[in-house]
Amino acid sequence: MARMHARRRGISRSVRPYRTEAPEWSNRDKETITKQIIDLRKQGLSTAEIGLIMRDKFGVPSVKLATGKKINQILRENSLATEIPEDLRNLIETALGMRKHLSENKRDIHNKRQLMLTESKVRRLVKYYVKSKKLPAGWVYKPETAEILLSR
After folding, report:
1. Which one of 49, 72, 84, 85 is at 20 to 30 Å from 134 when CA atoms are compared?
2. Residue 110 is part of which domain span?
3. DSSP letters of 92-134?
4. Is the predicted pLDDT of residue 1 greater than 60, yes or no?
5. pLDDT score at 3
6. Tens digits of per-residue pLDDT, 23-45?
7. Which CATH number does the domain housing residue 141 bear?
8. Residue 24 falls inside a structural domain
């Protein structure tokens, strides 16, 4: 499959093996895994960071295989999920960094183009999240108010 904003293909890399249940050597206790995820979230870590820590420190290669739920589902059930999905939040932070760079370096045409592409990805993702009801119906990305959104 080709890249979104480039005329080239992706790179080949390793793929996680197909499994339907957690391996025997992994930690499988649902209550302790859920408790650890909640504790890590209260420390202010994102879902991606929580997944890495669960894999590296606690021996859980896949939270979904061990508990039957994804990390986001566990956080939603315990009302610890964020208002804005994590991938959208990361793209908005990237766009804000680019806007800050452009305010200092007005002639940087390459950054201007990357900002356009990033904000188009943000708008496309917002459209998807509004359609799938993960964001409210009238939610629109505005660069002027994006910094206020992320400070919550």
Report:
1. 49
2. 86-151
3. HHHHHHHHHHHHH-TT-HHHHHHHHHHHHHHHHHHHHHHHTTS
4. no
5. 79
6. 999 988 999 999 999 999 999 99
7. 1.10.287.10
8. no
